[in-house]
Write a structure and sequence with these properties.
Blueprint (H helix, E strand, L loop, with lengths): L2 E10 L5 H12 L2 E6 L5 E7 L1 H13 L5 E10 L8 E4 L1
Parallel strand pairs: 2-5
Antiparallel strand pairs: 1-3, 1-4, 2-3
Length: about 90
């Protein structure tokens, strides 16, 4: 069973290699989706995979990599797309 979570993270989440650490963690957890920096300073993350792996990735995103300070995480669950196979770094 696939689940998909969509997150928007605020705080010190840009300029700390968040996207690259997240891509490595996504590969480790075997989840698909994407991560990108937004113009307003937030980071957007979409995570799709097995429920346990998605929950682990959400937990990681709420903490972030070294030097990141995640102040808030807004999250919604969405319908998964079975065509998604990879985790991408976008913009």
């Amino acid at each position: 069973m696939l689940v998909r979570a969509h997150l928007w993270l605020t705080g010190r989440v840009q300029g700390v290699a968040f996207r690259y650490y997240a891509a490595a963690k996504a590969k480790e957890l075997m989840v698909s989706g994407f991560i990108r920096n937004l113009d307003d300073g937030r980071v957007e993350v979409v995570i799709q995979g097995e429920p346990e792996s998605v929950e682990k990735m959400i937990h990681w995103c709420r903490k972030g990599p070294p030097h990141a300070i995640v102040k808030d995480a807004i999250m919604v669950y969405e319908d998964p797309d079975p065509e998604w196979k990879n985790f991408e770094i976008r913009g």
